[in-house]
Amino acid sequence: MKNKSDEIEKRYYSIGEVAQMFGIAPSKIRFWETQFESIRPRKTRNGVRQYTKAEIENIQKIYHLVKIQGYTLQGAKEALQNNKPIAPLVSPTQIAELIRELQEVRNFLAALKERLN
Question: How far is CA 101 from the centre of its chain?
Fold first, then answer.
């Protein structure tokens, strides 16, 4: 297993990776891009979206307001415009790390199951 200090920090994340971090469909993120100015991912020549950590943090704020606290999209826009303090549950980096660790556990369990069969 690698040490955290050995891992290279990603600069950009795909829409699939971001969607997986929050357990939502990529289409929801694309829709939120049309509703919130704070989500403007860089796009490659092929139109592939690339999200920075700052944009992922903005998505996390929107997710928290809409999905956790039950705000409407308009209410979330107003809360963000008024700089209403939002306590994030976990950082995007922590979410990505947790997903990676859970995938390792899943792979281990699948291998163990295969050996038992």
Answer: 16
Would you state the structure tokens that stand for residue 106, as one six-digit string? 């899943």
With 0-12 CB in 10 A as exposed, 13-18 as middle and 19+ as buried, what is 29? Answer: buried
- Each residue of 33-45: pLDDT tens digit? 999 998 999 999 9
- When the candidates are 2.30.330.10, 1.10.10.10, 1.10.1660.10, 3.40.50.2300, the CATH number that belongs to 11-116 is 1.10.1660.10
The single residue listed with the structure tokens 């107003």 is 78
Q: How far apart, in whole angstroms, are the C-alpha atoms of residue 69 and residue 63?
A: 9
| Single-letter residue type at 23 | G
Q: What is the pTM of this model?
A: 0.64
Stated as kind and residue range, the H or E segment containing 42 is: strand 42-43
Return d(Cα 33, Cα 38) in angstroms, integer.
8
